[in-house]
Design goal:
The complex is a heterodimer of chains A (112) and B (239). Chain A is mainly α and 112 residues long. Chain A is 75% helix and 0% strand. Chain B has helices spanning 3-16, 21-37, 42-52, 55-66, 71-96, 101-109, 113-125, 131-143, 145-160, 172-181, 188-203, 211-235. Chains A and B meet through helix 1, helix 2, helix 3, helix 4 and helix 5 of A and helix 2, helix 3, helix 4, helix 5 and helix 6 of B.
């Protein structure tokens, strides 16, 4: 095994258990607690955009300044991310996008 | 209503979920491999998937833990990724809310992208569906995908330890996330939210404790809500 050995058990289990309870709470909140009372529209509106607001912010530094390259921008990785995005956006499908991106990264490395 | 129509609804749900085999399968495998690479044991990885049961949030938490983000930031960010499940829960409540509490509690655990997306379409197409059939369909959307996700995670975790370091899997997570996000950008509001999120993430890259991520997330969320409101106001219809 490689990578981060110093991710302590305490941190890991705090995150796993916290995330398990928190995720269940989010899923149970309306179905279990609120019932079918109407909800304020602004609330549903904000909930709709949380995933597209958090995930791009998480990806951006990983794509622009990859750790494996010592934080230097890597044109090949940038291209692979671009291809993944384009295919995902155009096909609206996850798997073709990830395969196209992986191919962009791997094929030139095998050829040259 | 007979048990045979309920059974048919269950199988219809299972059949409709089959295309998602090609999403949940590879991503479960990838989560297993990546968490094994990050130093998690097989049991830890498996328990992670079975108890949290939310791929994107799991990847988020794993990535931030590897960056040594404070535990609170890890939890807030991963739960923020999962906030959409609260929206799904709200949308399913008018259809499933009349069931007994134990059933709603068990069902809530299985609210994920594919079970929500398939069920809500089915309910809207067949508004007269009895409650038992609605539950059967919802259950059907999970009977294949949920065990698959957990088993592929386990498999990925087992083979992950055998994958040589030279394969450099470090870029698999950003690629997987990009592939998850791109198809989500269905409306101008979603695109605006993602654009602001990326911009703030770049500007706030130097903010300590990964707080830039929270700032970018809040900015993106507000942008999405404001743009949606503006589009509605101009066109006079809901999107």
């Amino acid at each position: 095994m490689t990578g981060t050995q110093d991710m302590t058990d305490t941190v890991l289990w705090t995150v796993i258990i916290g995330l398990a309870l928190g995720s269940f709470a989010l899923r149970f909140l309306f179905l279990g607690v609120v019932g079918d009372r109407p909800l304020p529209r602004w609330l549903l509106r904000c909930l709709r955009y949380t995933a597209v607001a958090i995930l791009p912010a998480l990806i951006t530094p990983l794509v622009l300044w990859p750790k494996a390259n010592g934080g230097e921008t890597d044109p090949m990785k940038l291209a692979a991310a671009g291809v993944t995005f384009a295919v995902g956006y155009l096909t609206k499908q996850v798997l073709p996008a990830v395969l196209a991106g992986a191919a962009t990264l791997i094929v030139p490395a095998l050829l040259f | 209503m007979t048990s045979s129509t309920t059974n048919r609804a269950l199988w219809r749900g299972a059949r409709d979920s089959l295309p998602f085999v090609f999403v949940a399968g590879p991503f479960g495998l990838l989560f297993g491999v990546v968490s094994s690479d990050a130093g998690l044991h097989v049991t830890e990885t498996f328990f992670f998937s079975v108890s949290v049961f939310a791929g994107a949030a799991q990847f988020t938490a794993l990535q931030l833990m590897q960056e040594h983000a404070p535990t609170l930031i890890v939890l807030i960010s991963a739960l923020a990724v999962n906030l959409r499940c609260a929206m799904y829960s709200a949308a399913l409540t008018p259809h499933l809310g009349a069931a007994p509490m134990w059933q709603r509690a068990v069902g809530a655990f299985f609210i994920v992208d594919q079970s929500y997306a398939l069920s809500i379409v089915e309910y809207e197409n067949k508004p007269d569906m009895p409650l038992a059939e609605k539950w059967a369909y919802f259950t059907g959307t999970n009977v294949v995908i949920a065990p698959l996700w957990c088993c592929m995670t386990l498999l990925g975790s087992l083979v992950g330890a055998a994958i040589p370091e030279s394969w450099s899997l470090d870029f698999a997570v950003p690629l997987a996330f990009t592939a998850i996000v791109a198809p989500m950008l269905r409306t101008p509001a979603h695109i605006a939210a993602a654009f602001v999120s990326v911009s703030v993430a770049i500007l706030a890259a130097g903010v300590p404790h990964n707080l830039g991520l929270i700032l970018a997330g809040l900015a993106g969320m507000i942008t999405g809500a404001v743009v949606e409101t503006e589009i509605e106001r101009r066109t006079g219809r809901l999107i």
